[in-house]
Amino acid sequence: MVLLHAMQEKGYTPIAAHFNHKLRDEADQEAEIIQSYCLDEGLPFRSSSGDVRLFAATGGYSIEEAARILRYQFLFEVADTEMAGAVAVAHHANDQVETILMNLLRGAGTRGLSGMQVVSIPNPWHEKIPLVRPLLDVAKKDLIAYQNEHKLPVIEDLTNQDEVFFRNRIRHSLVPQLEKLNPGFHQRLLQTAQILSAEDQALDFFCESAWNTCRHSQGASYIQISRDELLEFPIAVQRRLIRKALNSLRPDYIELSFLQVEAALDFIRTPARKSTNWVAKVNLSQSPKMVVLSTWETDVVKNQFPQLLDHNHIQIPDQGEIPLGNDWFMSITPVEYSPDQFDRADIPGEDFLVWMDRSVLTRKAVLRPRQEGDMIKPLGMGGSSMKVSDMMINEKIPAPYREDWPLVVGENSVLWVPGGRMSQEASITAESESLIELKFIRRKK
Questions:
Q1: Residue 386 pairs with which residues in a beta bridge?
Q2: How far is 391 from 180, CA to CA, in rounded Å?
């Protein structure tokens, strides 16, 4: 509301755009309040809504990430339609501090520690329309003072107080402690972010030249990279080139971790390894001279997926390995865990690896192929069910492999579709007493 009012005061002609995530009971009323304000002020108002929970479940996103994707897609659609000069959002200096700290705790590099940019173009949403954050250097207390001075209506989202969300724990617990320990740390952190941002831009400039040097060929579903030329670059450049390659194939995948980047580079440094499933439904394969990144949509690598070719039902043991044939195994490993770790455990999630509540793997749990009528209750869908066949389509599991695709099935339901989603019935909760790790591994003899 402050951004909207300030743009009017500065002589701009903003278009207010509001996306209703439909996540809270009061969301519809809040949309009406904003529409009423715009009507009184003579401002154009555009609105939309979406089913964030369904989008999260079908796309494999967290609720927060799903909401962000749908929101920004809508904002840039409005900007395109209205031929707007930019999309302006109201992130402020406190948001920037929280973002940097979140990225630091997640193990980010210079890009993450640079925080958000005042102007982003191109951005994940548009090549030509910039995303701008005019208030990024303004402290929240100054925005509140502006709001009070101009008597602007505001809406407080009560979920901002709920510390089940990572950002809220940073905001309400960590930031006050850091400020108490080192008064004025906000400003020093923001200055550090500016330094890292400039250095990040310099690395980007260098990496563009490196990309053109080592990229051999590229198509819609694959990228070939000269192995020797990639490995000649400094490690910082290698990491960026790996991220750039994945972004070229999966532009919506933004959660690539340090360990996932290192896993790709470890594979490339080991010429005896010929192929592996990596992340985001992308495979890695290599010859002595070339590294190939290929999406699941292309059949470049032989035996690239686990298959149950004999269609047996295999009982899942408490721990150990199940050989599937075709060089694939499923490993079952207990996880060192106690219930008091629930809110801080770093739970992995990969195409062929999950942690689940150990209690759901009873003696009747089996590994088997898909059967007619199989259903699953994917995490994030509020207990709603969907057909396993539909999930396989949504998750881009290649059609030729679906019939022999291994499923982890409990006593009464499908618990996990590898490469797809885990069932809500197998999810880790505060009541979970022990966990189990299930992982599909391809191991050449």
A1: 376
A2: 49
Looking at residue 17, what DSSP letter applies? E
For the chain, the distance separating the N- and C-terminal CA atoms, rounded to the nearest angstrom, is 63
Q: Set out the domains of the chain in order of their start, with CATH numbers.
A: 2-183 (3.40.50.620), 207-295 (3.30.465.60), 314-442 (no CATH)
Cis amide linkage into residue 334, ω under 30° from 0? no
Evaluate if pTM is beyond 0.70. no
Residue 117 has a CB neighbour count (10 Å cut-off) of: 18
CA dihedral sign, ordered 357, 361, 366, 372: negative
Tens-digit pLDDT profile for the chain (445 aa)? Answer: 999 999 999 999 999 999 999 888 888 999 999 999 999 999 999 999 999 988 887 776 778 888 999 999 999 999 999 999 999 999 999 999 999 999 898 777 888 899 999 999 989 899 999 999 999 999 999 999 999 999 999 888 777 777 777 788 899 899 999 989 999 898 999 999 999 999 999 999 999 999 999 999 898 888 999 999 999 999 999 999 999 999 999 987 877 888 899 999 999 999 888 888 899 889 998 888 899 999 987 755 557 788 888 878 999 999 999 999 778 899 999 998 888 877 666 777 788 999 999 999 888 899 999 999 999 999 877 778 899 999 998 888 888 788 899 999 998 899 999 988 899 999 888 888 899 999 998 876 5
Instruction: Kindly give, in sequence order, each residue whose CB lies less than 8 Å from that of residue 284, ignoring residues fewer than 6 positions away.
Output: 264, 267, 268, 275, 276, 277, 278, 291, 292, 293
